[in-house]
Design a protein that fits this description.
Number of helices: 5
Strand content: 25-35%
Largest sheet: 5 strands, antiparallel
Oligomer: single chain
Number of domains: 3
Number of strands: 12
Radius of gyration: 26 Å
Strand order of the largest sheet: 4-5-3-7-6
């Protein structure tokens, strides 16, 4: 079987319909250099909370917000992902001056297209992060860079304002405070503030859901229900035993 192979074997026609049969297809090698070059002015994006964000509305409104609706073509890629094709590089540069991006009060990841196969791509978001609580005698580039590197990839350090531009992994929880230890052994608590941050879970600090959908709180609710059922069951058994004794 040169071009494809069955995964998981055969089975009767009355087999498990939920699992079904999957194919693994092998595509022969071909020159896709021109195809890749054709996406050199394409941005690809992802809604970090697709349940709360309307991609079709995003494709309609974002180019108008950028005042480039006559020079951009957008497409819905499914599963919360989308792309914008630009006519010229100058417009892309201007758009990136507006990052980080958000829509429907939740963040979106928007990056230059690359031939990446990772299903979580794209998920990078660039934030300016203000760092508050750093002692003046440690107010220096190495301090800010060290904190920024613990968060993600440091893109720029602004000592005057006390902030670092960091490329964050959008699927990781945000960090709002951290303990910083200096070479002298002294420690201090530093608070982090993300500029132009929209939408995150107040319980686990994820960018991908609100507090009502938080899996941590959901598990806690489920555990409370289970404990409640057990307590009611134990109470009923105790009452029944008392009745038998009388």
């Amino acid at each position: 079987m040169d071009q494809g192979g069955l995964i998981g074997g055969g089975g009767s026609s009355n087999g498990d319909k939920k699992q079904g049969t999957r194919l693994k297809i092998t595509v022969p090698k071909f020159d896709n250099t021109a195809l890749i070059r054709g996406y050199s002015r394409t941005l690809i994006g992802r809604c970090m909370n697709p349940a709360a964000q309307d991609v079709q509305a995003l494709l309609h409104h974002m180019p108008r917000f950028w005042k480039m609706e006559d020079r951009i073509a957008g497409a819905d890629l499914g599963m919360g992902r989308f792309q914008f094709d630009f006519d010229n590089e100058e417009d892309i540069v201007e758009v990136f001056k507006l990052e980080p991006f958000h829509f429907d009060y939740w963040m979106i990841s928007l990056v230059r297209w690359e031939p990446v196969m990772d299903p979580r791509y794209p998920s990078a978001i660039n934030f300016w992060v203000r760092m508050m609580g750093i002692p003046l005698h440690f107010w220096a580039e190495p301090t800010f860079r060290s904190i920024g590197e613990a968060l993600g990839e440091v893109l720029e350090v602004d000592i005057d304002v006390g902030q670092v531009k960091v490329c964050l992994e959008g699927y990781k929880p945000l960090v709002f405070e951290t303990t910083v230890e200096f070479h002298s052994g002294e420690e201090t608590m530093v608070n982090l503030r993300y500029e132009r941050l929209f939408g995150y879970c107040r319980e686990c600090f994820s960018l991908c859901h609100g507090v009502l959908q938080c899996p941590i709180l959901r598990r806690a609710r489920e555990e409370r229900v289970i404990r409640g059922k057990k307590m009611r069951s134990q109470t009923e058994v105790h009452i029944e035993l008392q009745r038998c004794c009388h």
